[in-house]
Each structure stands twice: as C-alpha cells, then as structure tokens.
Amino acid sequence: MRVILAQPRGFCAGVERAIEIVEKALDRYGPPVYVRHEIVHNKRVVKELTAKGARFVEELHEIPDGAITVFSAHGVAQTVEDTAADRDLPVLDATCPLVAKVHKEGQRYAERGFEVVLIGHEGHPEVIGTMGRIPGVVHLVQDAGDVATLSPGHPDKLAYVTQTTLSVDDTRDVIEALKTRFPKIAGPDVKDICYATQNRQAAVRKLSDSVDLILVVGAQNSSNSNRLREIGGEVGTPSYLVEDVVAVDPDWFEGVAAVGVTAGASTPEHLVDEVIDRLREIAPIDLSIMDGIEEHIRFKLPEQLRAA
Question: How far, in Å, CA of 222 to CA of 165, rounded?
Fold first, then answer.
C-alpha cells in the first residue's frame, strides 16, 4: 500500500510557540505552571505538558494567587486579561500572533466607528476571545445564510474579520454574501488569512488527486483538523479524522492502494509517526512525502522568556 504524507502538515508556528512558552516557563519558574484552557487542541500535547507540571484550567478563579499563568494560543477576551491584572497574576501570553493580528484589525475598525462582523464558529475559544477583544458592536456569522439575518445599526459603516483557522476558501461564500448585501463593507486583505490554514488545506486538495483514502491526524475538537477531513470528502476522497492509532480501523483499507496522511496544525509529528506504524501492521507500505510548501516561519517568545 502506498502511503503519501502531505506537505505541509502538523504543527504551525503559532502552536510551536505556544508549547515552547509552557515548556520554557516550566524550566524557568518550575512547576506548576497554570494554563487557561488547553494550550492547543490536542489531548496528547496536553497530556505530555501535564506530565511535566502544567496544570490546565478553564477559568482564572482556579489559579492560585501568584501562580505563573499562560493564556492559550487561541487568545482571551479583554475581561480575562483585566481579571488577571487585578489579581496580579504573572501572565505569559501564548496567543498566536496571527490571532492577535485579527484582534488589532477588529479594534482599529471599532475605533473608527465601524460595527464588526466576525466570520467564525460560535463557541470556539478563538471566537470568544476575539469577540471579547473588540469594543463596540460585533456580529458573529458562521455561514452565508447568517448574512441574510444581519441587522447592523449602520449598514454603511461595517467591516469584517475572520477566525484564523478558516481559509480563503472557507470564507469566500460568506464574504461574497456580505459584499452583495453591504457593498461598502471593509475587510482585510487576503494576505492576512492564516498561512498555515491555507497551506494545509491546499495540500489536502493536492493529496486527494493521488490517493484513495485520506487520514487526518488530529483532535475531534480541533477546528482546522475537522476542516481538513471535510475538504477530503468534498473532493470525493473518503476521509477520516483520527485522534490516535486506536481510532484507525483496518476495514477502511480493504481494496485501498494509496493512502494520504495529513495532520492538523495542533498535531505533533510523533502522532503521525504512530499512525504510519499502525498502517505498517495492516499492510506493507511504500512511504513517500508529497512535494509541497516548506514552512520556515518562527514567532518570537514573550519578552520574559527570551533570555531563558
């Protein structure tokens, strides 16, 4: 059975930075280090950091006074940051710089008197954080159908921003619907879309041309991993989201000559390696890596950790 690895796949720069922040904080300050929300959406990553001394909580009241506190890569609302400051909690902000960029864009629009439309998934931590960072009126839309029910107070002064784990393709219909209904709406340039989301989705589309089945290694609560699986299905290739080797069903590979393997942006490469080993147990494999974009982007650590 041929097995082709997507390129790129797995960790993006924002996720690498967030995990490194927790690891360096543990090295520098010693355990425990408290992390509000899962640092990234992957159980294995959370489990490995927990074993090193990280403690994951959902709310700040669960964090003892004076404890080192890390905000997850998804970002937090302004009220969360304010509460941490009121308690004098020493905070390390692991918000992905691309998420922070969306916050700033939304804030700039709001400061100029615009109402802001956020394209994203209701309840996702990034969306909750972004809505809590933009002062003034913020409207959440999830799909083109939601645009029809929008009731802005000032239709001629409207702007949009998007959740970073959505690609140009994911948001195209929504943006077109917004521009049709509100011709004067302002929005970010296409280049502001998260590079990692776009690259991984494009790789899955390319991969689907060469394989009979696609495995996406990623967590069930990972927005970008779920979207990779959906894209495989949309282009007609049976696609499965697997959190780990336990989820791999040998029956899927009956009569399959070529399998594509990719991973969400919060999935460590050793989970991919374990899935490959599982495929070797199912059938002899010929492993190769698809030609694709090689990412070399790195984001700076918070100033408190750079010396470390």
Answer: 9
Say which residues have a Cβ less than 8 Å from residue 121's Cβ, sequence separation at least 6.
Answer: 127, 142, 163, 223
Residue pLDDT, tens place only, 43-56: 999 999 999 999 99
Backbone angles phi, psi at 3, to 5 degrees: -125, 120
Model-wide pTM > 0.90:
yes
Model confidence over 87-114: pLDDT tens digits? 999 999 999 999 999 999 999 999 999 9
Q: Return d(Cα 230, Cα 208) in angstroms, integer.
A: 12
Q: Domains of the chain, with CATH numbers?
A: 2-11+195-289 (3.40.1010.20), 13-96+300-306 (3.40.50.11270), 98-191 (3.40.1010.20)
Sequence-ordered alpha helix ranges (H) in 76-164: 78-86, 97-111, 125-131, 144-147
C-beta separation of 182 from 151 below 8 A: no
Pick from 197, 141, 130: nearest CA to 174? 141
Q: What is the DSSP letter of 20?
A: H
Dihedral sign of CA atoms 36, 39, 44, 45 in order? negative
How far is Cα 12 from Cα 297, in angstroms, rounded to an integer?
A: 8
Among 38, 105, 126, 243, the active-site one is 126
Q: Do the beta carbons of residue 49 and residue 24 sit within 8 Å? A: no
Which of 15, 131, 157 lies closest to 73, judged by CA?
A: 15
126 catalytic per annotation: yes
